[in-house]
Amino acid sequence: MRQTIVFFGLALAALLGTALATSHREAPGTTKRPKVDSTDFYMFRSYEPGRENYVTIVANYQPLQEPGGGPNYFYLDPDALYEIHIDNDGDAVEDLTFQFRFKNDFKGLTVPVGPEGDKQDVEVALVNIGPFGADSDAALNVMETYSLTMVEGDRRTGTKTALTHSNGQTAFGKPFDNIGSKSIPDYDAYAQKFVHEFNLPGASMPGRVFVGQRKDPFVIALGDTFDLVNLNPLGSESGNRDTFACYNVTSICIELPIGFLTSNGEEVIGAWTAASVRQVSLANPKPSKNGKGATVDGGAFVQVSRLSGPLFNELLVGLRDKDRYSAAEPKDDAQFDTYVNRPTLPTLLEILFGVTAPTLFPRADLRQGFLTGVPGLNQPANVVPGEMLRLNTAIAPTPHAEQRRLGVLEGDLAGFPNGRRPGDDIVDIVLRVAMGVLLPEDVAPSGQLPFTDGAFADASVVNPAFPYLKTPLAGNLAGNKE
Description:
Blueprint: H1 2-19, E1 38-45, E2 54-65, E3 81-87, E4 96-106, E5 110-113, E6 120-123, E7 142-152, E8 159-162, E9 172-174, H2 187-192, E10 196-198, E11 207-215, H3 222-226, E12 248-257, H4 258-261, E13 268-283, E14 295-307, H5 312-316, H6 322-327, H7 337-341, H8 345-353, H9 364-372, E15 389-392, H10 426-434
Antiparallel strand pairs: 1-2, 2-12, 3-4, 3-13, 4-7, 5-6, 7-8, 7-9, 10-11, 11-12, 13-14, 13-15
Helix pairs in contact: 1-8
């Protein structure tokens, strides 16, 4: 029996190493497609001064970006479809979808090579041949742009509207990744150029959008967790190294007026992100010279990545069902009910660390947090269970300097699980909720213990204004301040 428990504990340690990495590489299928791997999803009332009547949504993709990961860095996939879905009537079906399609144009910059009298212009191998920035991008060898489409109703068959700049243009620019300070001397000024306003049909206020590389705001002692949970979950809330302090991520950020998102007096909205690829992809034996055509893709779009509530797929969904979750829609989430009602994580923590798992089943507290919203906080009036982030847009945002890292658990109703802000310490919150902080002591004896991964996170990990996430770490080591 003791050998069985030890083996079970070691298996748990390996599982937790994957589970607690939020949504970075969260399912077997997404490890094959890092460009469409959604890592974190945020939704909150904008707390930038003067923008309180807006909601900001951030969908992060492409995990664990080493800042110096050149020479091609981290383009998004031009053959994929990236989406943000909004449910504004509680029925677990999208009512609004914002679709992002990316395009990478390789300019074919050349330099003259050879002796005088016999020079030949030859295409360079690098993405830039000199410094570039907010004033000029002539030295940049690849231009990244995207289109933004709004769909009302079903994501595939609904009414589509191409969203445009105020000047009518349909192409939105994306900044290149932060190569380093010699290539991009002032990355902040350069990236700010790519915060775009866009028109919304029938709305009196425009939206804002930014897509580009950012410093990953997620905080966790990932290395310790992979090392057979080599940390004390009841130890100090700080002191362990944040693994993601060294990495960047690609962020899709959109800010939308509250009045445009809500419908028929329902103030709670739900949201999630998903990415899809073409059903068929074949390796092309003869790619074209323009940098495209490494594959030939066709068929309908098929969803391969999905994310909303933090750690849901990682902490709750069984390993063999993770790809199934990635392909599913919230309206079909009844198939995952067992994982919510009878979560395995508390039992595994009990085995590893001697704490006591909650004894109440089914777990109504987890069901509310992940599937329906919490009554009186962010549950729609006519809710249909489905896994997504839910935000009560009637709750005022908490100013950046006053935000509480544990969100609702600390009385800050503008934080998780009422939406999610980048500064909410999700690992500590979810560990405590999973162990029963919201349950009576008689069914959750360990519920009031301060479970933690020891990597401290609060609002200081992000900025106080759109797009909120901090400047990405520079590829040259001298450019990194952390």
